[in-house]
Amino acid sequence: MALEIERKFLLANDSWRGAVVRSARMSQAYLGGERASVRVRIVGDQAFLNIKSREQGHTRQEFEYSIPLSDAEQIMAGLVLPGAIDKTRHYIEFQGNTWELDEFHGANQGLCVAEIELVAADQAFARPAWLGAEVTEQRRYYNNELSRRPFQQWSDEEKLGPC
């Protein structure tokens, strides 16, 4: 079984921008599911089908498969739920770990979330100065939730941290 151990954080400031080693524009949409999140993602000329269990917290089952780009385009054109995600993923290397920082566009414009994947739930890691509050346990920051209730629909009180 494949496990994903991931922690999510807001940002304290935008000093992360100078540390980006590469970026990729992504679009993704969801096909639904009560017990699992099923998504199709397009990154440049590559496409993936991803199945992730819906447990809340830092550890979930995850399965990802490459699929033909034409299949992904067809799925996104007619089979997905409303609310596709449009974002740029920035990759940052910091003290032996790779951080993935998602800068959202469209209906989620103004939101940035930093993620780190770990090999163990209790793994220690260095925290960059730009890292803000942890939001791993807050479902509204999960991409599948953002597809249903985008950041632009949140109240001002719900919107924390700069992008």
UniProtKB/TrEMBL annotation:
Residues 2-148 form the CYTH domain. Pfam families: CYTH. It comes from the Bacteria. The active site is at 30 (proton acceptor). This is CYTH domain-containing protein. It comes from Pseudomarimonas arenosa. The lineage of its organism: Bacteria, Pseudomonadati, Pseudomonadota, Gammaproteobacteria, Lysobacterales.
